[in-house]
Design a protein that fits this description.
about 350 residues, Nucleotidyltransferase, domain 5, alpha+beta, six-stranded mixed sheet, about 40% helix, 19 strands, Actin, Chain A, domain 4
């Protein structure tokens, strides 16, 4: 049976279809692609000009004839045709063998999405060239990816802070006991920084600049050494380019709201936790995954607010994709798992 599966799965892939980044895991090769979920198209048509890194460089810098689009919003497909084009591009890129290969695909989706949204993910993957499409919930994939013992009868808690959503889930016996999905993540943090610069300095900055500020000096908890950064943007009063210096303290203040929403969703999940599993969490604590886990001090803040040990995954950005990769080798696990989906 296993040897049959190995034959069938030689070119099969797992996809972490994220709002900000898409990662592709190819069986027996690991993560082979990690690119921004951005597509540049010819204005007024659906002709794709660039995908991924190349398209992201165009964000906010395109002439009228080119539009750079992020087809995923809050973890779900906002633009069906563009998502399909993006998936097709990624599938072909990892296989380098043109149209002949029709892989089986496992796609990680947010736990809070509707049946209609699930259908959209399956349809786009199928149209992009998948032979069969399986779905796995992101928190489950992240938990498997970071190596949590999800099949044991013990409480495991994962917090996956992505670009568009934050997923908080309590997992035991290969099933999700309780999960909460809030549409707050890295994108909302960037947006909060954009709004802060506009409100305080009348300075307009783009989403890429906001992301750079967040990565360089953003934090969720007071740092040992506070830092500053030069920010370039457009002065809304004079309409001219302008450079300012901002401090890490004020950026932390700007990020307060999205970070507080994430902490609140963790607290709500803990309140719904059955007592036996609560007891497990006192020792095990919770694991942070997703790009948002890299925000300076977010682990300290969550530990302070919940009183639990908080660990950041070794490679938080890859956790979900690694999880889909493990499941590719263990498809029976996906069939056993509650809430499994097959196209």
């Amino acid at each position: 049976m296993l040897s049959q599966l190995f034959g069938l799965f030689s070119n099969d892939i797992g996809i972490d279809l994220g709002t900000a980044n898409t990662l592709v895991y190819v069986r027996d090769r690991g993560i082979v692609l990690r690119e921004p979920s951005v597509v540049a198209i010819q204005s007024g048509t659906n002709r794709v000009l660039a995908v991924g890194e190349e398209a992201k460089r165009m964000l906010g810098r395109t002439p009228g004839s080119i539009v750079a689009i992020r087809p995923m919003k809050a973890g779900v497909i906002a633009d069906f045709e563009i998502t399909e084009a993006m998936l097709r591009y990624f599938i072909r890129k990892v296989h380098n063998r043109g149209k002949l290969v029709r892989p089986r695909v496992i796609v990680a989706v947010p736990s809070g999405i509707t049946e209609v949204e699930k259908r959209a993910v399956k349809d786009s993957a199928a149209h992009a060239g998948a032979r069969e499409v399986y779905l796995i919930e992101e928190p489950m994939a992240a938990a498997i990816g970071v190596g949590l013992p999800v099949q044991e009868p013990a409480g495991n808690m994962i917090v996956d802070i992505g670009g568009g959503t934050t997923e908080v889930a309590l997992i035991s016996l290969a099933g999700i006991v309780f999960s909460r999905s809030v549409r707050v993540g890295g994108d909302q943090m960037d947006e909060s920084i954009v709004q802060h610069m506009k409100r305080v300095y009348n300075l307009m900055i783009g989403e890429r600049t906001a992301e750079e500020i967040k990565i360089s000096i953003g934090s969720a908890y007071p740092m040992k050494e506070e830092t500053t950064m030069e920010v370039k943007g457009r002065d809304l009063v004079a309409g001219l380019p302008k450079t300012l210096t901002v401090t890490s303290e004020e950026i932390r203040e700007a990020l307060h709201e999205p970070v507080a929403t994430i902490v609140e969703s963790i607290r709500i999940t803990l309140e719904r936790c059955p007592p036996e599993l609560s007891a497990d969490l006192v020792d095990r604590g919770l694991i942070l995954a997703g790009g948002g886990a890299l925000l300076n001090g977010i682990d300290k803040l969550i530990a302070e607010q919940t009183g639990l040990p908080v660990h950041v995954a070794d490679d938080p950005l890859c956790a979900v994709a690694e999880g889909t990769g493990v499941v590719l080798h263990e498809l029976n696990f996906l069939r056993k798992m509650s809430g499994h989906e097959k196209s």
